[in-house]
């Protein structure tokens, strides 16, 4: 019996029964496709913090694909150039170097005003019949509007960059078809061209935005990043929080609608919002799966994971593990402590966790203030065919 079917439509709609079966029957499971599926909290956290497991093989997979398609007269090299400095995909020492550079300048957490201005502008748009698509009208545009302002990108470029981002972010999917790669490569080329031009402008006229700060800090490094590597960092920062924010905001509002008592408690006690965000991330956070590669033979749960074996970590399963969380399948916005793994753990712990949580909190809180009696009207929910980052296609509500 195959316990791992991430592309099965029933599991796309609701993967939690599959996760529960894995935790119960085969917490360290060798799938039909050869990778190891890890589903319990303790094992997932152990691997995330173990340096013998390096970040996933996406870069290696892409480079092999580029070489193969080059022999077929298909040039997909822009993809590798665009993602070469993505923190999610690289390992020390390069990971340490780039993360240190970013954290040295991205320490300004006073972004509330920017987020709230964006939230309010989106919530002021409403159809004549008082329906509102939480995904398309609210959650999807919000993260790119925010990161544009943080990075110092003019809003006149917002729509174009959003289109590119929607295509390029698919490189983080568990699986990609050739058609996907062609679209991703086209987006990568346009992204590189845009940020190369912006890099030249900011070098000449630096401002107080994140891109300018990175350029100035990089120039003072003993071994500064190349322009190509710096452009890849810009692209990563632009797209990194897109799908995850869409998922956090929309899935959280869906979840709260299913727990009216929790929703009422939160609406009446806004001081609970930080705690509620952590619980919503634990209960059904956007990042469900992460990949790792074993750098040597490693024993885990009575199994030998061999050198270069691929390991898929089920973060969303770990966050529902009753061995670690009491009443794990129940939403409890007062849950404490709540050491969930929604942002990972170890050296690859999400760099923008503070921004994701703040943006999610402000967006959800203001939504509940403006539309306290919203009701979901989608009877059949449609999820995107990607279990790595799980997001809804649409979420219509009546306001």
TrEMBL record:
Keywords: Heme, Iron, Metal-binding, Monooxygenase, Oxidoreductase. Belongs to the cytochrome P450 family. The keyword Metal-binding applies. The keyword Iron applies. This is Cytochrome P450. It holds the Pfam family p450. PANTHER family: CYTOCHROME P450 YJIB-RELATED, P450, PUTATIVE (EUROFUNG)-RELATED. It comes from the Bacteria.
């Amino acid at each position: 019996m195959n316990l791992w079917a991430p592309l099965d439509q029933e599991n796309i709609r609701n993967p939690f029964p599959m996760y529960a079966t894995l935790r119960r029957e085969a917490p360290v499971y060798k799938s039909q496709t050869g990778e190891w599926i890890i589903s319990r909290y303790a094992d997932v956290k152990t691997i995330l913090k173990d340096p013998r497991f390096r970040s996933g093989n996406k870069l290696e997979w892409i480079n092999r694909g580029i070489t193969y398609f080059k022999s077929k007269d298909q040039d997909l090299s822009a993809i590798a150039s665009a993602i070469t400095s993505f923190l999610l995909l690289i390992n020390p020492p390069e990971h340490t170097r780039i993360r240190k550079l970013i954290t040295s300048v991205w320490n300004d957490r006073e972004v509330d005003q920017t987020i709230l201005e964006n939230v309010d502008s989106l919530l002021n748009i409403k159809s004549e019949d008082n329906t509102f698509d939480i995904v398309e009208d609210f959650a999807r545009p919000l993260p790119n509007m925010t990161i544009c302002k943080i990075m110092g990108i003019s809003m006149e470029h917002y729509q174009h960059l959003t289109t590119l981002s929607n295509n390029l972010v698919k490189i983080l999917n568990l699986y990609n078809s050739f058609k996907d790669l062609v679209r991703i490569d086209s987006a990568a080329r346009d992204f590189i061209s845009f940020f190369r031009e912006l890099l030249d402008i900011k070098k000449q006229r630096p401002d107080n935005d994140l891109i300018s700060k990175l350029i100035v800090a990089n120039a003072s490094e003993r071994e500064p990043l190349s322009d190509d590597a710096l452009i890849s960092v810009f692209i990563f920062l632009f797209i990194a929080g897109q799908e995850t924010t869409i998922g956090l905001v929309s899935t959280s509002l869906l979840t709260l609608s299913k727990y009216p008592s929790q929703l009422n408690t939160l609406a009446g006690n806004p001081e609970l919002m930080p705690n509620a965000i952590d619980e919503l991330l634990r209960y059904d956070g956007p990042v469900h799966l992460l990949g790792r590669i074993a750098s040597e033979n490693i024993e885990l749960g009575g199994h030998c994971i061999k050198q270069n074996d691929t390991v898929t970590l089920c973060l969303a399963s770990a966050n529902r593990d009753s061995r670690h969380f009491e009443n794990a399948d129940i939403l409890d916005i007062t849950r404490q402590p709540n050491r969930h793994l929604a942002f990972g753990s170890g050296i690859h712990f999400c760099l923008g966790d503070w921004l994701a949580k703040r943006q999610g909190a402000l967006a959800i809180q203001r939504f509940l203030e403006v539309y306290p009696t919203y009701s979901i009207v989608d009877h059949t929910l449609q999820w995107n065919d990607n279990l790595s980052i799980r997001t809804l296609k649409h979420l219509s509500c009546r306001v």
